[in-house]
């Protein structure tokens, strides 16, 4: 491959930070999450959302607890403009939710943007962006550093002028392609904007630093964020924000390290939709915090309902291996994993009983499951599934949870061989119902003891509705190897059988 055509990030931009502090910091609180699904995510869709889908997605974000939402690019399309007007005319957003609209630094487009938000009762952030990296300056904009900085300030001045009669409006600036912009130039432009907009604690300005195209390892982005965090003027009047993309597959790591480096706000999409490989995944970020004991401040307690809505609105399915949300992320097929999970569940139940507390209240310490699936509304039904890779532990778990059977270890080993043979022959997963049918075929639907069998004891106990518990113990001599087993069946099957066969 022609790798010689590319340069590493250190040859493209300097990172003037040698005494970094972020590696020693810890994530102890959630940042302000700002979903951009309705703008950045929407513009990446082959079929952008219609007004009904945008409304449904917006209502989902409100229900989940987001307090600042980027709702569109009103100067770019009539649909976006009309959706913002809907928020103004129908007061759809709760009073504590801030509305964000997106605009380039062009007077005519800024005017259209300001027209869209007129009359919105909520706090509104007007988000202006301009690409600042050398390649974009040279190839796209044809501007020098000085010319581009002046153009950005002119756009900021237009926004300030048009927002003069709107006391509910605050401002945001993004030096697009920040991670490839010279640090001193990014700092200069951001400081000029916060000065122009008079950033202060009572009316802070959001400075958003996008990894518009991910080009380096996450530690480089963290260094860049910390440099800005430590050197920005009017820092107490700045909300430092990040907007990572996922071109290298490390958007989540970039966001987490950026927060360690001083970022207070993170823009992304709920399940990582967005241009090319997507924006940073807000669900993964939030639930990563949850898994570390930090309240993410967003409600993912019914993740399947959230997923259904997002899939409907975007027309993009969530992958079955998507962290926290995929169909298979709480499922084990491997025998060793299944055995550890089964034992972990048992230990968890025993510890809760010993402490006299609810299983949902005590610390979660189950192998291979970083969070309790119930935290996001999942049941335990699909935690263990059986195929040719599975072992006796997983099989025993399903027999117990689905049918109330508690086979002893020797029976588990014997039955696992039958399941393995069945799965190898079919090449398919074995469902719980198929497992039960195989079990009854092997151990229950068998011929009665032969004439040489010696019945040692027999007892019957009435259960209810014509069901009896039958216990038979017998000894029989056969040429084939015998198996000793004990099976206890819970009320779900309302029966119990006990038997032993011993070879002579």
Automatic annotation (TrEMBL):
* EC class name: transferase
Write down the Pfam families for this protein, in alphabetical order. HMGL-like (PF00682), IPMS_D2 (PF22615)
Which InterPro entries does the entry link to?
A: AIPM/Hcit_synth_CS (IPR002034), Aldolase_TIM (IPR013785), LeuA-like_post-cat (IPR054692), LeuA_allosteric_dom_sf (IPR036230), LeuA_N_DRE-TIM (IPR039371), PYR_CT (IPR000891)
Highest taxon listed in the record's lineage: Bacteria
Cite the Pyruvate carboxyltransferase domain residue spans from the record.
31-304
Residues spanning the membrane:
none
Q: Which Gene3D superfamilies match?
A: 3.30.160.270, Aldolase class I (3.20.20.70)
Q: Which terms in the Gene Ontology molecular function aspect does this entry carry?
A: 2-isopropylmalate synthase activity
Swiss-Prot/TrEMBL keywords: Acyltransferase, Transferase
Share an example GO biological-process annotation for this protein.
carboxylic acid metabolic process
Catalysed reactions, semicolon-separated: 3-methyl-2-oxobutanoate + acetyl-CoA + H2O = (2S)-2-isopropylmalate + CoA + H(+)
Q: Where is the signal peptide?
A: none
What Enzyme Commission number(s) appear in the record?
2.3.3.13
* Family statement drawn from the similarity comment of this UniProt entry: Belongs to the alpha-IPM synthase/homocitrate synthase family. LeuA type 2 subfamily.
Protein name (database record): 2-isopropylmalate synthase
Which lineage ranks, top first, belong to the organism behind this chain?
Bacteria, Bacillati, Actinomycetota, Actinomycetes, Mycobacteriales
């Amino acid at each position: 491959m022609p790798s010689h055509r590319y340069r590493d990030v250190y040859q493209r931009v300097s990172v003037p930070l040698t005494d970094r502090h972020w590696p020693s910091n810890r994530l102890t609180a959630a940042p302000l999450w700002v979903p951009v699904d309705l703008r950045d995510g929407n513009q990446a869709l082959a079929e952008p959302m219609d007004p009904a889908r945008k409304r449904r997605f917006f209502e989902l974000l409100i229900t989940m607890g987001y307090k600042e939402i980027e709702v569109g690019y009103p100067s770019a399309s009539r649909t976006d403009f009309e959706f913002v007007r809907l928020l103004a005319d129908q007061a759809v957003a709760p009073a504590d939710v801030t509305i964000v609209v997106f605009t380039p630094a062009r007077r005519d487009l800024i005017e259209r943007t300001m027209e869209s938000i007129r009359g919105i009762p909520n706090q509104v952030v007007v988000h202006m962006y301009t690409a600042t990296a050398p390649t974009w300056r040279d190839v796209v904009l044809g501007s020098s550093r000085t010319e581009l900085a002046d153009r950005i300030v002119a756009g900021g001045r237009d926004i300030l002028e048009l927002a003069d009669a709107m006391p509910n409006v605050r401002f945001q600036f993004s030096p697009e392609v920040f991670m490839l912009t010279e640090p001193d130039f990014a700092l200069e432009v951001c400081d000029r904007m916060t000065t122009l907009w008079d950033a202060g604690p009572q009316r802070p300005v959001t400075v958003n630093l996008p990894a518009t195209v991910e080009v380096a390892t996450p530690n480089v982005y963290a260094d860049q964020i910390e440099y800005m965090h430590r050197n920005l003027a009017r820092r107490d009047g700045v909300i430092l924000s990040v907007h990572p993309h996922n071109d290298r597959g490390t958007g989540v790591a970039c966001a987490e390290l950026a927060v360690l480096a001083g970022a207070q706000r993170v823009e992304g999409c709920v399940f990582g939709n967005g241009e090319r490989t997507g924006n940073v995944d807000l669900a993964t970020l939030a639930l990563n915090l949850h898994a570390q004991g930090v309240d993410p401040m967003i409600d993912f307690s019914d993740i399947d309902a959230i997923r259904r809505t997002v899939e409907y609105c975007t027309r993009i399915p969530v992958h079955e291996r998507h962290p926290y949300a995929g169909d298979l992320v709480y499922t084990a097929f491997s025998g060793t994993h299944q055995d550890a999970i089964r034992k972990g569940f048992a230990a968890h139940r025993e510890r809760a009983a010993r402490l006299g507390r609810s299983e949902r209240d005590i610390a979660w310490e189950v192998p291979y499951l970083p969070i309790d699936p119930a935290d996001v509304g999942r049941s335990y039904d699909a935690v263990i599934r059986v195929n040719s890779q599975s072992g006796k532990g997983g099989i025993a778990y399903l027999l117990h949870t689905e049918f109330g059977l508690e086979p002893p270890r020797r029976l588990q080993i014997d039955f696992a061989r039958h399941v393995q043979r069945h799965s190898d022959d079919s090449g398919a997963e074995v469902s719980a119902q198929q497992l039960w049918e195989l079990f009854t075929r092997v151990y229950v639907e068998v011929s009665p003891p032969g004439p040489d069998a010696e019945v040692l004891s027999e007892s019957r106990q009435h259960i209810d509705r014509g069901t009896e518990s039958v216990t038979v113990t017998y000894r029989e001599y056969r040429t084939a190897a015998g198996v000793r087993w004990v099976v206890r069946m819970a009320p779900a099957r309302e029966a119990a059988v006990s038997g032993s066969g011993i070879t002579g």
